[in-house]
Fold this protein.
Amino acid sequence: MPTKVLSKFTTSFIALLLTFLCRPLPGISLSVASDTCTSNSKMRIRVSKIIPAQPQHWVGDGFHVFPVFGQYAFQQNHGLSPFLMFDYASPKKFPVNKRRQPLGVGQHPHRGFETVTIAFQGEVEHADSTGNNDVIKSGDVQWMTAGRGIIHEEYHSKEFSKTGGMFEMCQLWVNLPKKHKMTKPRYQPILADSIPAVKIPTENKEEETEDATSSAGTVRVISGSFNGVKGPAKTFSPVELWDVLLPTKDLIVELPFPESYNCVVFVRKGEINVYGNDESESPDMVGSQAVAIMKGEAGGNVLRLSAKQKNTSLLIMGGEPIDEPIAARGPFVMNTSDEIRQAMIDFQSGRFGR
Ligand code: MN
């Protein structure tokens, strides 16, 4: 074979090989290839696993929730870290509460992680042992760091109890790295007007319009950053938490997402298609109130998706995985069972919330 032909053959063979290696194939480890293929190029983040909507249960008497992560909650190495648990209370109408006590959950302790509560409809009231007493309303977020120990209560607000109405909220548990588990408790009230709503750029510039109802959508950046705009929440490890609205049906959008982070997409309302690198492959459909654990072996740095219904709402979350053992029992999340025992002793002897 003449040299010229050989080199041409070799070049096209390498190109073919690279194309093959860069394509995510479920079940095949790409740990060597992913470093070389993805650095400056776009590689789509694939669906690794879909967890369908789970049966609901009551938390206290005020929160009727789906345990969104199902059996994968508190598990290591399933692509959820730094998130531990996710309860979603889907829209539910509550009548006027004629009792003296609002509905909710009374005093209980936490140690070793953070609770993040988002109110979508209705109002959540919170009081804790460090002296915070606060109400979050539609679009507001409270980011509570339990750290070495906090005791709090969570209720429908007094105002909401008087009027009744639609109620929708969620609570995420975010793990703390080992070195921060015993940090001082902290409370961040994050009001809706402090959360930047970033427009999603469209591929076709002519489609861009000031009319929010026909735009590609918005990303409310609660923590982390989207297109260079940072969210207000302070975190102990890198955490992305985006409240995403896709108003237009069938419009494909691309959302860049940090390559080394885990990524999870929860469909709060509507349904979506998630597209892979291979255009000929059919997209993965994620239905209403299902959650998709993304990435798997293939990694990726851009989410390419479209809403299958108008006004589809997503929560996109992720972050740098915390690669440390998880020991979880009730309201405590530590690294070892000895630390869980210590948490119980400390709580029972009144050493929480100081
Ligand atoms: Mn709690």
The first strand starts at residue 47 and ends at 51. The longest helix spans residues 3-22.
